Amino acid sequence: MTQSRLLGVGAFLLGVFVLVPAFIHLTGRWDFYYTLTSVALLSVSAAGVWLTFYIGRINIGQGAYALLGGYVSAILMTQGGVNFWLTLPLAGLFCAAVSVLIGVPILRLRGVYFAMVTLVLTEVARLTALALPITNGAKGITSIPLPGELSIFGLTLIPDFATLENPKLAFYLMAAALMVLTYLVLWRIVNSRLGHLCRSLQQNEELSASIGVNTAMLRVLAYAISSFFGGLAGAIFVAISQSIYPSSFVVSDSVNFMLYCFLGGLGYVFGPMLGTLLLYFGWDLLSVAREYQLLIYSGTMIALMLILPNGVLSLFDRKGGSK
Amino acid sequence: MEQILANGLYLGAQYALIALGLTLIFSLMNVLNFAHGQMYVFGGFVTYTVVAQFGLPFIVGLLASAVTLAVMGALIERFLFRPVIRKSKRDESTMLLAAGIAFFLDAVILLLFGEKQRGVPKIVNGVFNWDMRLIMPYDRILIAALAVALIVSFILFMQYSRTGRAMRALAQDRMAAQLMGVDVDRYSMIGFAIGAMLAGLVGGLLVTITGVNLGMGGPTSVKAFLMIMIGGAGVISGAIAGGFILGMMESVGLTVLAAYGDITYLVIFITLMIFLAIRPQGLMGKPWG
């Protein structure tokens, strides 16, 4: 069992870091790099949404944290001259801190109420970014420098992106590496004591509170981790697009993050990754259908929902039976 | 001041009507209908087609909108929501379905009606002017009155008709209603159809004033969510209260806060989040109490 799992992880890593670049080199579809980089960074964000689903909350507010993280990273880089690699964790931590402040009152809400408040949160983030002077309003922050060099004691770990001949590949590798790390963390969380406690929240909050689980604390913790991922994704986005606007992450993005989780399957750690890949990549491929793109896309989504209401990964349930 | 209040009431009447449909669907099936805004836009386009393209009277267009959307709602419930609700492990799965339907309707609207802003000619001309203190075009007054009439008739329908009583029972306790012999499937379908019909009717009403375009769906849905949150999800009186409160806040905010730039909605949203943190169930609380 563990051997086959190791094999699977190995195959996955090989596919992401070797086969995909090789495939793109062979076919010359350089645009796939951009798409796949987006998939990787969106799935980091979706991982956060999934974690809030895991404690039984519908989170449609991830766009707010992605936007916040993006702005934190952008402002630190342009005004503070901080190295991008340092802003990455800072953006995440800042979002986590903000999410604790917001989460304490709103995590008492449940079901649709929580979902709608988080939906509003996305809109609040956008409007705040429009209104504040530091974010430069609707004009946004542009011409953000490429990620610089990351070195420890003079030893270069990651070279300056500006000196690279192929920054697209570098961005792809960066986003993919972060995605792998994120899902590693997520997997570890789910299969730890914390994960068991979260599952107890998902099933019955009163019951788990009555046997001594600190539900309030746990909810905020899960939400903070989720927002950390959101901020991380926002910071990566800033590095890739070298710009950020109040409309970089809007309500529809927040809704999409949620849809990625649903489509992949809420019961599976790797569900959001698969969901993001299918929906985002599928949308991109469907652009050949021109005006029928949205029709086919949404039609497929509805059909998938009818056939597999518990997510695409539930396909594999019948065979193995184990997660 | 009178002007602000009148504007608020006018906005509120429309908003309340949108929120009613959403809250009806939510209370019956526990489905948050993401496609509500798109249904509203669809209704607007149907009225536009009937009135502006075929040259038929406005009332025919309105009826056409109502019928089209009611049929659409019934079909969506019967063939999409019902099987998914039955098969899915978690209630939330319906949200993906609803969002998928929202995208689908957007696509259909784009293909059928195009992406241009559409409107129909004014149905009544003239402006009501009370001493320059209160100025309101007659067609707005007419639309607001129609909206209020629809709200009242909806409440009466829910209170006194057999169908309405069945739906209220369903909303209170699905299982108990079923045990008392209410045909749950049938009334869910009727409820969804009525909810969609209300969205279509508002679309038909507003196409005469603001017109419709493809991009209106999403923001309308968000606004409708706000209203039912203010009032309490699944409560009819709450939806009406929420609609009027949001309309009033918008009207007052746009006037008072105009000096500080475009922050009306920011203020409304933040107020709402604070309000909900204090009172999570909204104004009216429990379903159909």
Describe the protein.
The complex is a heterodimer of chains A (323) and B (289). Chain A has one domain (31-320). Chain A contains 13 helices and two strands, in the order αααααββαααααααα. Chain A has helices at residues 2-27, 31-54, 62-80, 84-106, 111-131, 167-190, 193-203, 205-210, 215-241, 251-264, 271-285, 293-307, 317-320; strands at residues 150-152, 155-158. A two-stranded antiparallel sheet of chain A has the order 1-2. The radius of gyration of chain A is 20 Å and the shape is globular. Chain B has 289 residues and is mainly alpha-helical. Chain B has a single domain, classed as ABC transporter involved in vitamin B12 uptake, BtuC, CATH 1.10.3470. Helices cover 73% and strands 3% of the residues of chain B. Chain B has a two-stranded antiparallel ribbon. In chain B, a hairpin with a 3-residue loop joins β1 (127-130) and β2. The radius of gyration of chain B is 19 Å and the shape is globular. Chain B starts with a helix and ends in an 11-residue tail after the last helix.
Helical residues, percent of chain B: over 70%
User: What is the radius of gyration of chain A?
Assistant: 20 Å
How many whole angstroms does the radius of gyration of chain B measure? 19 Å
Most extensive interface, residues per chain? Answer: A-B, 43 and 46 residues
Structural class of chain A: mainly alpha
**What is the CATH architecture descriptor of chain B?**
Orthogonal Bundle
Cα shape of chain B: globular
Task: Report the oligomer.
Answer: heterodimer
Strand percent estimate of chain A: under 5%
Strand order of the largest sheet of chain A: 1-2
* DSSP helical segment count of chain A: 13
